[in-house]
Inverse folding.
């Protein structure tokens, strides 16, 4: 039983690895489950044993490299007593640095931001991805809405606007860097760029 379970996990891992490679090379819309099965050296039935459809496979691929919303929330909440805004800043800096330094994360986020067209076939994956985005924005908004943070927002900036601005900048930074990694150094310039944004949102940011 143990060996069978290990073999199943190896097969599942091979399918996910092949999906990464082919989605990056061909684009998600132009890659079929048959392509992935052939590349992984498994049968089409083996793919369906582990994944309901391409949307499920795509979602599971993304889940390998992004933190669940619960972990994101805990990361910020554990630092709330000290400075939730600083914790949110660190979360953004670490996220960008992590993608820059981890090849798998870099491949998968390149697929998501540049090689994925959300067709009808991927509607389920698109809905799950949008739910993840909305949860992250909600976490940011809740952080900015804390009394100790809200009182520091610049005039005219609401927690809602601050959250959407932060999300837009981080996604824009990642999208641009994955398109052309000569634009900036994520490890050196990333923190400076994130701090520039926070100083535009928070009146006393240093």
């Amino acid at each position: 039983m143990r060996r069978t379970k290990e073999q199943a996990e190896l097969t599942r891992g091979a399918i996910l690895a092949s999906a990464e490679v082919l989605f990056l090379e061909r684009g998600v819309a132009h890659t079929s489950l048959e392509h992935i099965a052939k590349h992984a050296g498994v049968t089409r039935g083996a793919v369906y044993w582990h994944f309901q459809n391409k949307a499920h496979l795509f979602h599971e691929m993304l889940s390998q490299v992004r933190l669940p919303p619960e972990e994101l929330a805990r990361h910020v909440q554990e630092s709330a007593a000290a400075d939730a805004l600083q914790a949110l800043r660190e979360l953004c800096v670490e996220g960008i640095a992590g993608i820059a330094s981890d090849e798998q994360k870099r491949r998968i986020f390149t697929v998501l931001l540049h090689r994925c067209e959300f067709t009808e076939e991927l509607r389920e994956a698109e809905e799950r991805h949008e739910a993840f985005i909305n949860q992250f924005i909600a976490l940011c908004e809740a952080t900015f809405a804390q009394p100790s943070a809200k009182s520091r927002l610049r005039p005219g900036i609401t927690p809602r606007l601050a959250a959407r601005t932060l999300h837009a900048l981080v996604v824009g930074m990642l999208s641009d860097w994955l398109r052309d990694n000569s634009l900036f150094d994520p490890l050196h310039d990333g923190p400076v760029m994130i701090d520039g944004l926070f100083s535009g949102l928070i009146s006393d940011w240093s």
User: Anything to note?
Assistant: The mean pLDDT is 91. The chain has two domains: 1-51, 64-201. Residues 2 and 8 are 10 Å apart (CA to CA). Residues 64-201 form a domain with the Tetracycline Repressor; domain 2 fold (CATH 1.10.357.10).
